[in-house]
Automatic annotation (TrEMBL):
It comes from Penicillium atrosanguineum. InterPro entries: Ferritin-like, Ferritin-like_SF, Pigment-catalase-like. Residues 298-343 are annotated as: Disordered. The keyword Glycoprotein does not apply. Transmembrane segments: none annotated. Keywords: Signal. It comes from the Eukaryota. It holds the Pfam family Ferritin_2. Residues 300-322, 332-343 have a biased composition (Low complexity). This is Uncharacterized protein. Residues 1-18 form the signal peptide.
Length: 381
């Protein structure tokens, strides 16, 4: 049963009044909730734009038969109610909620829209999972957890509709604040100047020229969008999992280009980062990424009108183009996200901007997300 707007407002008010905002390691619960609200604004805007651009008939022509369209409208409503809930909770607690930004979504038809939606929902699940450890107050943790479970349902539904395994692995992958912002900022053109700063930054982009899904044991090509030191012997690849990074063989082919073998135990929407050293994968030593890689074979249709075929390999023929204008640094009011020299992990961190609700972009920064989007969309062919 859906909550009414009044019920949502009352719940948020009661939540915030019952528990004051607290601080943990320079990140307050208000920061975490505003971080979550930033993501919910993005998702709500994404679905609003898609449902405005594409009709029920458009989805049916793309192979998504009823009641898929009605369920998608429910998903859009969920995201809007998440926005309302977090906004009310922050206001009632005396914190200023961030406002919606201006976004650029690279979808040109129903297929690319659904593919990108699946990616965003997967990132949303990983974002809430990764942020949970930073929430001190149990009431806020429970509230965030209740949103996380719904985001996971959205993700599973879209994956199944696209012919993907709805739950490809027994544990979801958490992403930290900076890792999520690196991905989310790709779709943010500009934000109101009144939005407060959050303690997050973007890492240099890690791109993937191949747009096809891969299997474990396969080699994946990666490229860093920025300068790399000549000596890359201390640069490693790490696939992010809930139990810690899974290190994979990394081969440098020069000029910031690498190849990595997908290790065993990695499945579904997965994330790989490059690190300095192979002892940990944290904000202190991540030098690029994450890149999103879809690991595993398509399942075929799951009874939702998908035109996937479980017996055929995905084809890139007919892949819809996704283009958009790139906001300049002067337009967004922030420096470009393209990286400078990464001779050390600290240098990589210092070259990344601090989030204030807007970001500049370079063309290459989109490739890692576009590759993953195309991989999912390919199953619709």
């Amino acid at each position: 049963m859906k909550f009414s707007s009044v019920a949502l407002a009352s719940a948020a008010m009661g939540l915030a009044q019952a528990t004051p905002l607290v601080e943990r390691a320079q990140i307050t619960d208000a920061d975490v909730l505003n971080y979550a609200l930033t993501l919910e604004h993005l998702e709500a805007a994404f679905y609003q734009e898609g449902l405005k651009n594409y009709t029920q008939a458009d989805f049916q022509k793309a192979g998504m038969q009823d009641p898929f369209y009605a369920n998608l409208k429910e998903t859009a409503s969920d995201e809007q109610q998440h926005v309302q809930f977090l906004t009310k909770a922050l206001k009632a607690a005396g914190a200023k909620p961030v406002e919606a930004c201006t976004y650029v979504f690279p979808s040109t038809d129903v297929k690319s829209f659904l593919a990108l939606g699946s990616i965003l929902e997967g990132v949303g699940v990983s974002a809430y999972l990764g942020a949970a450890a930073s929430i001190m107050d149990k009431t806020y943790l429970t509230a965030a957890g209740s949103i996380l479970t719904v985001e996971a349902r959205h993700s599973a539904y879209l994956r199944a509709a696209l012919g993907e395994a709805p739950a490809p692995q027994p544990f979801d992958n958490p992403l930290d604040f900076d890792e999520v912002y690196t991905l989310a900022s790709l779709f943010i053109a500009s934000c109101p100047e009144s939005n407060g700063k959050l303690p997050v930054k973007a890492f240099p982009a890690l791109t993937m020229p191949s747009m096809a899904p891969v299997m474990t044991g396969a080699k994946v090509d990666l490229m860093v969008a920025g300068d790399m030191p000549k000596d890359t012997s201390d640069i490693y690849a790490a696939f992010i999992t809930v139990t810690g990074p899974v290190w994979a063989p990394l081969e440098s082919t020069g000029a910031g280009k690498f190849s990595v073998t997908v290790p065993e135990g990695i499945a579904g929407q997965s994330y790989v980062v490059l690190t300095k050293g192979n002892k940990q994968a944290t904000d202190d030593n991540i030098v690029a990424g994450p890149a999103i890689v879809e690991v595993g074979e398509p399942n075929g249709p799951m009874g939702m009108g998908s035109k996937c075929s479980g017996s055929s390999k995905p084809s890139m023929s007919g892949w819809p183009s996704m283009t958009m204008s790139m906001p300049s640094a002067s337009k967004t009011g922030m420096p470009s996200m393209s990286s400078g020299s990464m001779t050390s992990a600290s240098a990589a961190a210092s070259s990344s901007p601090v989030f204030n609700g807007a970001s500049g972009k370079s063309v290459s920064v989109f490739a890692s997300v576009f590759g993953a989007v195309a991989a999912v969309a390919a199953f619709l062919q």
